[in-house]
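Many introductory courses stop at the sequence. We go one step further.
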Amino acid sequence: MRDVPSRALAFNFQADVDPPQAVTADEAKIVPAIQDDFDKRHPDFALLRTVVSPDNQRALALYNTADEPSQTFRIDLYSADGTFLRNMTPPDLAVVFQDSVVWSADSSFIAFVGRKSLKAEASPTPAEELAPIAAASPGASPAPTSSVLPAFAPVKVFNTEQIYLCNRDGYDLKPLTSRDGLIYFALSWAPDSHALAALACKEGEWNAREKELKTPAGRPRVISIDGQERLLDDALAEAPPVWSPDSSKIATGFGVDIGIYDAAGKSPTQARIALRERLLTASAAFDEKSSAGKKTAGEASNKTAAADNTAGTIPVSRRPT
């Protein structure tokens, strides 16, 4: 597939087929050992889910603290056997979109979406309210001052949701995108771990769809692990992007159409597959099949009911009155 440009691909449409055996439902499961350790360490916090690395050596614990909005959460890094390793996200970085916390296929990188935390910060005490500091007596040794070392290296945060990347040990955390005003979501790693596919939209577009109770939609793009970003389409896609097994193509959905894009190459191409007529034909065939099945079932039910009525009818007496 890598040698065939997207615009030259052929396709075969089949309606109502079973999913491939390798595809499993993405259920929000929690590793029991991590749950036990988390309950001991953070009895007041809520563990939302755990995300295990493909090599089954690491796991991410997604949890919500008592003083944060319910839509945001933090991430801790664990070993797969439930041993706590480290806090991964700083307090001023709010992580969002649980389904966009993803490991690369080779388990080398972790990607997620985050923005500046909206949690209220404590207001500084006015200078006039501070207690006066007693003057040190002559000859007295200076009083030791407590110092708290920062637990996290400085990480730039933004007002809208950006993609963040770190290594498998939770270090080297950095923003992979820095386009304040855009909201990134629906992350998907390439099978060879060279890049991410994602959707992104303007904050106003997100808010408008939210008011209309519509699912989020964004413009598909591919982002390499060094931060290079390429827009794939100007139209808003509603389906999360997916990769071909060889990491050469990306596909997403626009209503009843499917867009396919070359993920790399000097002259990348794209194709749009229109499925409206095929979907209408498949829907009509399904309705016809369902109607025929209901009719057959109804006739069988009527015959059974008639037989039951005949068997259960009390015969008319022929005795003379």
